[in-house]
């Protein structure tokens, strides 16, 4: 049985301390919680940056503080730097600068035109969080960005929000711009134009992946986060946890840290007969030979 890679998404670009005071925002907080999550069993750390006001930023200096802080402390986790932040209005060209600047082993890559988010609140009788988040304006633009990843030895973590994005992965694969094995993150449970977090939907998406793909699931929200984990493990996938996706450790109980969430994931993996992958095992599973590992 292949070891299960646990990714910890530490902070994200949406929720802040109003959702959970323990959510890390400043570089020193992100570094401290990243180290704790790594020691708890996370082999990959997914990184976003925040400015001094706690808002999402693509500032290279802030990202450098996080990356260098983790490495200076001896952390050997695979670093997955986000090129996201579109939901916060950060322009594409700013978001992708982290790839040539840091040459990370992995960086996120949302393979779609965009997503219409939001939900209707019956009590308020209004749409909540109703907005369109633009990602890529054309297939040619996606191919251009994929080329930047490849030129810098960075493996794209292909973010899939719905089944249409599988067509884009197939198109990029056919163009020869994606390294093998493909790494696909199936994101489920975001209100709006995103796949609902059900086992049936997960099976459909996984069956549509190119042969040999490595895949993980980001199940968004407290109602989905741990519930989907058993299905993912039974199907041979990897998992992502962390306060970017869920700020609770149990029903109605806020998590004290990312490490607490990772610790719960580790216990569940082992109770279901698996074993968390180390950083070294993760590099072998994903065939990570490029990027900046140190």
Please describe the topology of this protein.
Layout: E1 6-9, H1 27-40, E2 44-47, E3 49-50, E4 56-57, H2 60-72, E5 78-81, H3 92-95, H4 98-102, E6 106-110, E7 114-121, E8 126-134, H5 139-151, E9 155-160, H6 164-174, E10 183-188, H7 199-207, E11 214-219, H8 229-234, E12 238-241, E13 248-250, E14 253-254, H9 258-271, H10 279-286
Parallel strand pairs: 1-2, 1-12, 2-5, 5-6, 6-9, 9-10, 10-11, 11-12
Antiparallel strand pairs: 3-4, 7-8, 13-14
With strands numbered from the N-terminus, the spatial order across the biggest sheet is 1-2-5-6-9-10-11-12
Content of β-strand: 15-25%
Order of helices and strands: EHEEEHEHHEEEHEHEHEHEEEHH
Number of domains in the coordinates? Answer: 1
CATH topology descriptor: TIM Barrel
Q: Report how far the terminal alpha carbons are from each other.
A: 28 Å
How helix-rich are the residues, as a percent range? 25-40%
Mean pLDDT across all amino acids: 95
**Measured on Cα atoms, how large is the radius of gyration?**
18 Å
Please tell me the CATH architecture by its name.
Alpha-Beta Barrel
Largest sheet: 8 strands, parallel, barrel
Which residues sit in consecutive blocks of at least 5 with pLDDT less than 50?
A: none
The number of strands is: 14
From the spread of the alpha carbons, the general shape counts as: globular
Classified in CATH, the superfamily is Aldolase class I
Helix and strand content put the structural class at alpha/beta
CATH top level is: Alpha Beta
Q: Number of helical runs?
A: 10
């Amino acid at each position: 049985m292949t070891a299960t890679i646990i990714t910890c998404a530490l902070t994200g670009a949406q929720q802040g301390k109003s959702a959970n005071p323990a959510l890390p925002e400043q570089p020193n907080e992100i570094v401290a919680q990243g180290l704790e999550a790594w020691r708890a069993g996370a082999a990959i750390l997914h990184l976003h940056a925040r400015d001094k006001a706690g808002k999402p930023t693509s500032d290279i200096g802030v990202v450098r503080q996080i990356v260098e802080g983790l490495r200076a402390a001896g952390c050997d986790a695979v670093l997955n730097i986000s090129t996201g932040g579109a939901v916060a209005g950060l322009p594409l060209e700013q978001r992708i600068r982290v790839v040539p600047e840091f040459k990370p082993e992995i960086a996120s890559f949302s393979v779609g035109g965009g997503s219409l988010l939001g939900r209707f609140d019956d009590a308020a009788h209004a749409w909540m969080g109703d907005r369109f988040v633009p990602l890529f304006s054309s297939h040619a633009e996606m191919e251009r960005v994929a080329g930047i990843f490849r030129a810098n030895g960075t493996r794209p973590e292909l973010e899939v929000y719905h089944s249409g994005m599988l067509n884009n992965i197939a198109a990029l694969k056919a163009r020869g711009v994606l390294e093998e094995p493909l790494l696909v993150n199936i994101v489920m449970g975001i209100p709006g134009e995103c796949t609902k977090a059900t086992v049936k939907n997960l099976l459909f998406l996984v069956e549509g992946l190119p042969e040999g793909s490595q895949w993980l699931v980001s199940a968004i929200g407290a109602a989905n986060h741990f519930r989907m984990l058993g299905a993912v493990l039974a199907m041979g996938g990897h998992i992502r946890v962390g306060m970017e996706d869920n700020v609770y450790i149990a029903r109605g109980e806020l998590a004290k840290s990312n490490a607490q969430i990772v610790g719960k994931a580790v216990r569940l993996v082992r109770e279901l007969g698996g074993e968390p992958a180390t950083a070294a095992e993760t590099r072998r599973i994903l065939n990570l030979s490029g990027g900046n590992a140190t």
